[in-house]
Amino acid sequence: MSNFNTCFTCKICDNFFVDPIILPCGHSVCKSHVEKKEQFICQICSIEHTIFCKSLIPNKFIEEILTTKIYENLSEKKRQKILNSFSLLEKVIHEIENLEKNPDHFVAEFFDGLIKKIDLRREEIIVEIEEHYRSGLTELNDLKNKLNYFQIRKLTKWFTRTELNNFKQNTKTNEELVICCLDSFEKKKEEQSIKIEKLYIDLLSEMKKDCNNYLDLSKTKKLVDSVKTKIQTIKNNMDELSQNIFKILINENIYDATKKKINDDREFINNSIRDFKNTLLSNKGFELESKVFGFPELNDTFSAFLNKNVHNFRFKAEDLKGKQRGTIFISNKSVFKGIPFYVGLKLEKNNYLYACLYCSNEFEFSGIDVNYKISEIVVNYRFQNYGKSFKFVFRHFGSGFKKLKKITENTVELNTNIIFLLILIFQ
Asked: Which pTM value belongs to this model?
């Protein structure tokens, strides 16, 4: 594929054109290369021309662009955007062609990535359980000498009501009840550690078995003919467009249409890549990734903290005071099912408050469902829930900022006691 820079370069001296002239074959060269010759062979098409100095036709189009610095000043930004768009398109074309040539590489890397995520999740859970255990141990020890009716309810964080009733039947004092809870708590922790290790070994074995099965199947998979034909058409169009860079740069309509065409082609290939990858996995990509999401399957009271699906983020109204409209405030990082995410909040010129979810999703086929809810807390006064709610599926890119509510100038500029509470409920 031609490089766009060569459009302004003479093929003989490899420099920008100086007094470019048009040869009878249609190609252009610097005038100095032909003006003292009677015969000249074009370096591009190898056609031999008889040269008549008085009949040399200047290429005013190229000369005007170079001399008026349109190429350098006006079109440079557009040229870079087109180059970047072409580069991204070439990248996905290269990716899908490599994918078809070496499907086993994708399958091996896919399962290797899942196994690494399982390993990481296992380590994280071990740390979380240890921290949860220490926290519970501290709270239970604190309750030994001051357990009463109201504080007994705290025990439901770690034990079911049935378990607590059994403890009560086997103990006489509150201190004995707490000691019984401590013994049971220790056993729960040990049982969970053993259960997690067994689930980990079983899932690892299952993943390795699946990997071998899909590696064998991948050898028989090919892209469908319609996709291959479309890709070849896209490549041909890229060559044609690269040869008409002048028209693209100087005509706004052609430039916009070219950008849209490139983006549409890239989206088509990206979708084709994802579809073919899923085909290599017998259309079970999401199902396989869900096993990582679901690891480990623990449904008891002790492990309830591992399944947290509600995340709260607080932003102070005073942070918005005096800031330029559109400034984005980013929350600290949180994690849901192995997907790290952030929340952004911004106030636009129309005084509407917007929120956005930023995720770093490394899964091929999976995303997360999330509900947004916005509330406004006036410190020491009242809690106002505006009931604004959104639901969307996050895959590999954000769906943009969601309009939450309109707030008054008074809210932002004067009342610094207001806190905006953003609640994310994951499904």
From this structure: 0.63
